[in-house]
Write a structure and sequence with these properties.
Blueprint: E1 2-7, H1 15-25, H2 34-43, E2 47-54, E3 57-66, E4 70-78, H3 87-98, E5 102-107, H4 113-124, E6 128-131, E7 135-137, E8 144-147, E9 149-152, H5 159-172
Parallel strand pairs: 4-5
Antiparallel strand pairs: 1-2, 2-3, 3-4, 5-9, 6-9, 7-8
């Protein structure tokens, strides 16, 4: 059974292990530095940094933002020894049940087997590609890192407004 435990203090004993996973799982341009992340954990109530525990064992991390009109799913990672235990699937099932409304996430375009598998994984979990023109901003500078796709659990006439809010709140305001 998967349990999400919100980390609200940068001194939480689980955080150091989770930061190591975060740095291992995401390339530098797709993540914040540890100092930024610790500051956001303390100062930004709209950001949810969650430890994932499976049967009482620390198994991963899940970061999302409550943007009031929608949720932005920023990072999901599972420790290597815990992979293939359907932990990510259980997290997606949990949020489908508990985060009512629109949920958006970024995904790399399908260019190889791994990126194709990832997009298909989200499709199997009720997400669809909503925008293929999205340019991800940098976490540190006013530059665009690269093209990603936006996937979501439903269509919205407000998608471009939501994308601009992600860029503003997640990337620009919280450096």
């Amino acid at each position: 059974m998967v349990n999400l435990i919100r980390i609200t203090e940068p001194t939480d004993i689980r955080l150091q292990k989770l930061l190591s996973l975060y740095e291992e799982a995401f390339p530098e341009e797709e993540r914040r530095n540890a100092k930024q992340l610790k500051r956001l954990i303390s100062e930004k109530p709209e950001m949810y940094f969650n430890a994932i525990e499976t049967n009482g064992v620390l198994s991963g991390l899940f970061i999302y933002w409550d943007m009031r009109d929608f949720y932005y799913l920023e990072h999901l990672a599972v420790f290597t020894p815990m992979r293939n235990l359907k932990i990510g699937q259980q997290v997606l099932d949990y949020i489908a049940e508990h985060l009512d409304g629109m949920r958006l996430l970024e995904v790399e375009p399908t260019t190889d087997e791994m990126t194709t598998r990832r997009v298909n994984y989200y499709r199997r979990n009720g997400y669809e590609i909503l925008d293929k023109t999205y340019m991800q901003p940098s976490y540190d500078e006013d530059i665009e890192v690269g093209n990603l796709w936006i996937m979501g659990n439903r269509k919205s006439g407000r998608l471009q407004e939501f994308i601009e809010r992600i860029k503003q709140v997640v990337y620009r305001e919280n450096r």
